[in-house]
Write a structure and sequence with these properties.
By secondary structure, this protein is α+β, with helices and mostly antiparallel strands. It has 27 helices and 24 strands. α26 links the parallel β23 and β24. The relative contact order is 0.06. It binds 2-(butylsulfanyl)adenosine (IVH).
Length: about 725
């Protein structure tokens, strides 16, 4: 990223382009953080981008975009939950990064209010909880609904989920007639570790950090899952009120505690910046022993009448600020750069570091992302780190945020050895020496060796036996590496012929380190058991690029068997439209169109399927495997609901639920949901405004219901 200095020399055109770029990156970051609970950049990076955006806007006010990130709080709610419009907007907080920012905060408030420097102006100081905010509406003391922040204006209705949280009372005694309590849902370190242990035992996804675990747990469509997750809640603010809680912030917090809410015990009234900063240091020093994540300290003007006078800027209150803790950083020597080759051939550079402690953890490896990152530029060619490249021998800054993989963030040029040379990213695979190429628009260089590349082959095998795929007991990553090295298993089919080839040679396996007669027999039994495999697990296990767990299910739900899928892929490969990138032409082609009509399947995946199936070497590997398996279609697992096995199309506006929720429910009942009407469609659910799809259904004589009819059919 360019530094603030470049603002002075920036032309209007450059500024407009940079604002567009920042808006794109921040949009993506917002969606990843708020909707997918999978942050892609650190909070510090996010804040830096936002500050840069604001600085450019301040320089070029006329260039401020309509969709400026400055005016956005979070991201719009994701599909799946009903929406709730907040009666009082849920705002975010401005940030302070150092002591000066805090004294300036105090100064600007005094200026705004016309208060003398020595007039008393107390503040509260309290930990900033790293969770997700929640608004709880109580009417006559009864919990009516609970909503996430969403984009600040509209949030998600998570009432059923909130009711399962122990710290959230269902009824309050002595509360104002209308009371909207706001606070943070979070998960303790202990509960987070236990949850992740349970998840990995079950083969379910684990969470990167407690915040993601809390968000993922609260935003479950099935509240019984939330109930099984140990969530907690701290109350620290309020929205609509029928009568005031108190005259001061501290008084209001005490009142919330009396009503039965948990409030943070480290909340304290401070006389001014000096005391605020002292409390900040005390909280920071005790941070590691709190048992839950916090990412700073929030200061609020204590007098509520003054808060009222101070009011708000577009997205933040003038009367409060968040003083952020610095990210965890350390400096060390970069001893080397290793290239790891992944399952899809991606070459990932990994920094080999002189071991260093970062926030209590010893770090000896860190990611360097990709070749552009090492060279000091982003995917669009714009400089990052002021364009400084990273060289072996450099003195580098290592950054670690929570459980995120550590990364090399910066380099100190004054410490660069005289003989350090720019890093040359390999153009051949270090494992198989095949050319490694970068396709247009791909940030990553990939080995083209396919299955002849031992690194790709072994990573593919590891993926094949992983939890969400074949999940063969006793055959994990470690065993795969051993068998691969010995030449006993080189491709998936050889797992299933292992006993036949070595069964009589059981002796050989038994004699190996770590194997006895019993474990060898158990392994063969576990393998035999997985010859019968769910179609979706098989598809996911193949390790085709862009084919994740969800898409594997979507494909398995749509195609009855392997022959139907592979036949359609083969036909798509030969369709004339496959050479024409136009979407309309693809949709109009029978085989391509069939893929694109499947909800959850797009052009990238279809193209990737074609690529995998047309690769002759890969195809024989598939064929040899399929011959040995007994594939269970997805429907077999479905329920006996009236829509099980039926293909349903939703069209027009749904009024009682979102499209995403309708799809999830239909699929849970064993239906396939498709995006287009054809002779294979069993049922069309048409809401107001349904157009050509409803007409086509009528022409084909397909049963059509309205939303109420559908709800009646599936039991409300
Ligand atoms: S006060 C009008 N107090 O931080 C401002 N927020 O970055 C109301 N947060 O959206 C928020 N701990 O989710 C406040 N003690 C605390 C907090 C806190 C965590 C979160 C909250 C807010 C975000 C802003």
């Amino acid at each position: 990223m360019l530094m603030a200095d470049d603002l002075k020399t920036m032309t209007e055109q450059e500024a407009a382009a940079e604002l567009a770029r920042l808006s794109r990156i921040l949009d993506r970051a917002n969606a990843a953080y708020h909707q997918e609970d999978q942050p892609e950049i650190s909070d510090a990076e996010y804040d830096a981008l936002k500050r840069r955006n604001a600085a450019i806007e301040a320089h070029f006010p006329e260039l401020k975009r309509e969709d400026s990130p400055t005016d956005q709080v979070g991201a719009a709610p994701s599909g799946g939950f009903q929406k709730i419009t907040h009666s009082v907007r849920m705002l975010s907080l401005g940030n302070a990064y150092d002591d000066t920012d805090v004294t300036e905060f105090d100064t600007s408030i005094r200026k705004y209010l016309g208060l003398a420097v020595d007039a008393p102006l107390p503040y509260t100081a309290e930990p900033k909880i790293d969770g997700l905010s929640l608004a709880l509406r109580y009417e006559n003391g009864t919990l009516i609904h609970a909503a996430t922040r969403g984009d600040g204006t509209t949030g998600e209705n998570v009432t059923a989920n909130a009711r399962t949280v122990g710290d959230i009372p269902d009824v309050l005694g002595g509360a104002p007639e209308l009371l909207e309590v706001r606070g943070e849902v979070y998960m303790s370190h202990e509960d987070f570790a236990a949850l992740n242990a349970r998840q990995s035992e079950k083969g379910d996804k684990t969470f990167a950090n407690p915040r993601n675990a809390a968000a993922g747990s609260l935003r479950q469509l099935d509240a019984s899952i939330t109930a099984s997750r140990p969530l907690r809640f701290f109350a620290y603010a309020w929205g609509s009120l029928s009568s005031p809680l108190a005259e001061t912030q501290m008084g209001a917090i005490d009142r919330l505690a009396e009503l039965g809410f948990q409030t943070n015990p480290l909340t304290q009234v401070c006389d001014g910046p000096e005391e605020m900063l002292a409390h900040y240091r005390k909280i920071e020093a005790g941070r590691a022993t709190l048992g839950y994540d916090i990412d700073g300290v929030v200061y609020k003007v204590n007098d509520l009448a003054l808060q009222e006078r101070l009011g708000f800027r577009s997205t933040t209150p003038r009367w409060a600020i968040a003083h952020k803790f610095p990210a965890e950083l350390a400096w060390t020597r970069l001893e080397g750069i290793d290239i790891q080759v992944g399952r899809t051939g991606a070459l990932s550079p990994v920094a080999r570091l002189q071991p260093v402690t970062v926030g209590g953890v010893v770090v000896s490896n860190a990611t360097l992302h990709n070749e552009d990152y090492i060279a000091g530029r982003d995917a669009n060619g714009a400089p990052i780190r002021d364009g400084k490249d990273i060289r072996v021998g450099d003195w580098v800054q290592v950054y670690r945020a929570g459980d995120v993989i550590p990364k090399v963030a910066d380099v100190d040029l004054s410490e660069r050895p005289a003989d350090a040379v720019p890093y040359v990213f390999p153009e051949r695979c270090p494992e198989c020496d095949s050319p490694a190429v970068r396709e247009d628009g791909d940030a990553v260089r990939r080995c083209t060796g396919g299955l002849i590349c031992p690194a790709q082959a072994v990573e593919k095998l590891k993926h094949f036996v992983s939890r969400a795929a074949f999940d063969i007991e006793g055959l994990g990553a470690k065993q795969i590496e051993q068998f691969f090295e010995d030449g006993w298993i080189k491709e998936p089919s050889e797992i299933f012929t292992l006993e036949e080839r070595f069964g009589s040679g059981l002796q050989q396996l038994k004699n190996r380190e770590g194997w006895g007669e019993k474990s060898a027999q158990n392994l063969f039994a576990a393998i035999a058991e997985k010859k019968r495999i769910d179609f979706n697990r098989l598809l996911f296990g193949l390790g085709i690029r862009h084919l994740g767990e969800a898409a594997a299910k979507d494909l398995a739900r749509h195609f009855d068997d392997w022959a139907a899928l592979s036949g359609t892929v083969d036909r798509a490969a030969t369709e004339p439209a496959a050479r024409d990138p136009g979407k309309a032409a693809l949709e109009a082609s029978p085989a391509w169109g069939e893929f694109l009509a499947i909800d959850g399947v797009g052009r990238t995946l279809t193209q990737s399927l074609i690529q995998a199936f047309s690769n002759a070497e890969e195809r024989v590997v598939f064929d040899r495997l399929i011959d040995l398996l007994d594939i269970v279609p997805l429907e077999a697992a479905a329920t006996d609901s009236p829509v099980a096995g039926k293909t349903v199309v939703f069209t027009g506006t749904l009024e009682k639920m979102t499209r995403a929720e309708a799809k999830a429910r239909a699929e849970a009942l064993g239906a396939k949901v498709s995006g287009s009407v054809s002779a294979k469609t069993d049922l069309v659910v048409a809401g107001p405004g349904a157009g050509s799809k409803a007409k086509k259904a009528a022409d084909l004589g397909i049963e059509t219901l309205d939303e109420d009819g559908w709800l009646a059919l599936i039991g409300g």
